Hints:
Blueprint: H1 8-18, H2 36-51, E1 55-58, E2 64-68, E3 78-83, H3 96-112, E4 120-125, H4 138-143, H5 149-154, H6 163-170, E5 184-190, H7 195-198, E6 203-209, E7 211-220, E8 224-225, H8 237-254, E9 260-269, E10 275-276, E11 279-288, H9 291-312, E12 315-324, E13 327-328, H10 331-343, E14 348-353, H11 358-362, E15 368-373, H12 389-407
Helix pairs in contact: 1-3, 1-12, 3-12, 8-9, 10-12
Bound molecules: (2S)-amino(hydroxy)ethanoic acid and manganese (II) ion (2 copies).
The site of (2S)-amino(hydroxy)ethanoic acid has 6 residues, from loops.
Amino acid sequence: MGDIKIDGKRLWNSLMEMAKIGATDKGGVCRLALTDVDKEARDLFVRWCEEAGCKVTIDQMGNIFGRREGKNPDSPPVMTGSHIDSQPTGGKYDGIYGVLSGLEVIRALNDAGVETEAPIEVSAWTNEEGSRFAPAMVASGVFAGVFDLEYGLSRADLDGKTMGEELVRIGYAGEVPMGKPVKAFFETHIEQGPILEDEDKTIGVVTDAQGQRWYECTFTGQEAHAGPTPMTTRRDALVGAARVIEAVNRIGLAHAPLACATVGLVQVYPNSRNTIPGSVFFAVDLRHPDDATLSKMDGELRAAIEEVAAAVKLETALEEIWYSPPVPFDGECVAAVRRAAEANGFAHRNIVSGAGHDACYVSRVAPTSMIFIPCEGGISHNESEEATPEHVAAGCQVLLDAMLERAGS
Ligand code: HGY
Ligand code: MN
Ligand code: MN
């Protein structure tokens, strides 16, 4: 690989600087999509891109692109990037590591005075997490033509605020139409699981990402007094939800070791300690790398919901709000990542991503792959999320080398 080296210290300092925005007491970040802290972080990223000589553009879903021109301005860019938004109990690396690694690639090319053949772009995709606005990866999904713009802008949070309104409010409702040709896309990310750390590997060569299905379910029973109401006549929506939550866990375990099944969001109404809950809204997240198994899990979930609703005499409103099929990444891009890891002497292994990423949707419109680095204890979506400066630098060096191979220099 080339002799252009990234500056690991500079990348680490930028990560720590960015981590101050939305910092939480437990050492993580809370930067929900399109909040004021997301805006603050976006503004800092845009400033850093401009200081690195990039031309910055914003598209209609608020996706940010920092562009470094190449010799051939007509060539589609070799692009990298990830997301700035976080979970409510997010960490300092999920998403932002991929954004700032892309910026470091540009900074390193500037230092080396290298002009690539194809332009280089670093991107920051709106609302990758799907925490404030569902589904996840919605803005890269609109970029890739999976969702239309109107759907994307209409996504609303639990307070009814839409992405379109919030993009205007924070000043990131861009004019650039959605989608453009991309020569190749690479996303660098922490693994968010334990495999690389357990096997003492520095780089994960990501070959695939697993499929996901997201659901929203509302059980409606009847509010009643917690005291005089006999147990046998109750229609307790929370009892129903509890039984489905247990069933979701059983479905995940039944398809172990690769399946994942989670209920992470529950809203109880009226949520009063001495009133039997009349209605409960909850979200279900099912995942598996094999599509047929994911469909089987879908069927088992629907059957469980039906059975519980009948037993507890509840009305049910179930909607599957998102289906993202398993993603095989591009063989050539995967090989470029593997070559870069080998050339740098980094211990590496193939790995399937358990998490969804913007790369999953960008792969619909461009040859794409990902680069993983370990995170401590495999923990993520947790304020204690941690990575080492060495791994942070190694992932970025592999990114630079893989991008250069595709961009030509
Ligand atoms: O849910 C995911 O896999 C990602 O963190 N949005
Ligand atoms: Mn992420
Ligand atoms: Mn995440």
